[in-house]
Amino acid sequence: MGKRGAFIVIEGLDKSGKSTQAATLLRRLQDSQVSAKLIKFPDRTTTIGKMVDSYLRSESELDDHVIHLLFSANRWELASSIEESLKQGETIICDRYAFSGIAFSASKIRPGSHSYPLLDYAWCRSPDIGLPAPDIAIMLDVSQDVAQARGGYGEERYEKEDVQRRVRDVFVRIGEEFEGSGGKWLVVDADEKPDEVQTVIWDAVKDLVKGIEGPLEKLWDDKREAKNVDALYM
């Protein structure tokens, strides 16, 4: 069998430059004659994606459990096509993935509470178990001062300082868990200039995009490692 394509996920806080970096990486790969495709989650063009888009724009209200499951369903809509593209040797870049879904949902707190979670972390993770696992997840970490100085901050539901702080905390847990199960998790300082951030990203993926031998892993299929990481938070 030939080599499969690399699966690269770019995550991060709002206004961290994810979309810019994902698009720049795509162009760089294509210029290097690497077959590559960019996917953005949520995919707001599907029926489910349109419901998610309406919620994110605060144009509609949905129960927190419902919107979390819709985010996950939106990813499952494209799971088989992602796998097929990778098998054909195409590199896939994802602008947000399951990690964001967990981070934003598990960071929600009950009304009137300063810390008590609204949704259980394990419950938030469970709908995405079995999705294709990325070969590397790159987390763009941006300070709130820099994020707020960037255009359009605050236009969507989750772009609030207290929310972003809690989301960052959950991302830390996710990163530890992903690495504990054998995944690659890279945190990048997104306060730096875009060219500098892109250099760090390129250095991390330039060997992966040459092709990968071996099967595509699934997210959190082996729960033994996850339990070891969960013990850190008990």
UniProtKB/TrEMBL annotation:
Highest taxon listed in the record's lineage: Eukaryota
Keywords carried by this UniProt record: Kinase, Transferase
Entry annotated with the keyword Kinase: yes
Stated name of the protein: Thymidylate kinase-domain-containing protein
